[in-house]
Amino acid sequence: MFNQTQYTQDRDFTEASSAGRGGANAALRWCSILLAALALSGCATLHDSHLFVKEPERADRFVLPDDETDVVGDVQVVVARYEDTLPDFARRYGLGHDEIIAANPGVDPWLPGDGTRVVLPTQYVLPNAPREGVVVNLATLRLFYFPKREEGEPQVVVTHPIGIGREGWRTPLGQMRIIQKTENPTWTPPASIRRERAQRGEQLPGVVAAGPDNPLGAHAMRLSRPQYLLHGTNKPFGIGMRVSHGCIQLYPEDIERLFAEVPIGTKVTVVNQPYLVGSRAGEVYLEAHAPLAEDEKRWKGSLKPMEKAIEAETADGPGIVDWEKAREVALGARGFPLPISPGSPGLEDVVARARRVPRIPPWAEVEGGET
């Protein structure tokens, strides 16, 4: 559960000064001394926003100001303590395992180290698909839900990290619908999975009862391809990876909310888009992910899919895209949007300008990645 003491300690010390005028003056004096010392040492920079911890932004629900909006959220950063892991931060901030690893290359996932700056990739380009019902992007390991909106109301989008089918058990592409919703489901392992487990010396029962040993978790929504489900999990550390036999898995807290909100009959569209292109404030953005293993083998390192994605969204207008930047972003595959317009800031500037947020946000339901 949320630890108020830890959270308070992580907040900007200037926020703690509201208890009294004297405390505020002391904090301001200390701030001036600190900034002066940093400036003298050459450490202070114009865009360094990481000196102060700010209120975090939720990154699971966004209101779209208009139908043209295709980039939502903002990149944030957090400074680790010795006991933190990258999966801890992923769970707290609604991210998946592979997402946070890709955003922080060179950082040990299990021992990032006290004082290490960790990038939270909480900005997204929306998939190139109809904004209706549930849209699953396999390449980004992320689900987007577009609730039906009332006339005159803005569109809302809800997003969660997911686990998907591993190689050889790929989650199918295309359109489906939700045909059934079940709380505390039982699981009847199909013959193919029972055979696979038997080859490993494991014997599965014919039916797995609801409870902590059930891999479906506490909520399941069956798709119109009835062997596939959207469901929870009893192993949340696998969210954000290819771990399933084709089903789409969510963190327990995410599937609980989605289960309550998504009606039977909702359309589900599954796409595979590792390169997503959008625009915000006049800048073109590219969100690049490592392709799925099957696609990587087929594409053999080609960036043609990235080029096609950009051309489809921009019509390759003159001066719109810096192609050298685009290739750099595609090869880096950090998994969050980066600007690729001529003269736009690079990766280091984007991260330097990102807001620093607390290790544990106030809404966190679970502090660790494996709880």
Features:
single chain; disordered N terminus; nine-stranded mixed beta sheet; alpha+beta; three-stranded mixed beta sheet; 371 residues; L,D-transpeptidase catalytic domain-like; 22% strand; 10 helices
Describe this structure in words.
This is L,D-transpeptidase ErfK/SrfK. Belongs to the YkuD family. InterPro entries: LD-transpeptidase, LD_TPept_cat_dom, LysM, Transpep_catalytic_dom. One of its GO terms (cellular component) is extracellular region. The active site is at residues 231, 247. Among the domains are: 4-41, no CATH class; 129-271, L,D-transpeptidase catalytic domain-like, CATH 2.40.440.10; 275-346, no CATH class. A hairpin with a 5-residue loop joins strand 11 and strand 12. With 371 residues, it is of the alpha+beta class. The protein has helices at 4-10, 21-41, 86-92, 97-103, 191-199, 252-261, 293-299, 304-314, 323-332, 347-353; strands at 61-64, 71-73, 76-79, 117-120, 123-125, 133-137, 142-146, 155-161, 164-165, 174-183, 219-223, 229-231, 242-244, 248-249, 267-271, 275-280, 283-288, 338-339, 355-356. The strands form five sheets. A nine-stranded mixed beta sheet has the order 1-8-7-6-15-10-11-12-14, covered by helices on one side. A three-stranded mixed beta sheet has the order 4-3-19, with helices on both faces. A three-stranded antiparallel beta sheet has the order 16-17-18. Helix 3 packs across helix 4 (97-103).
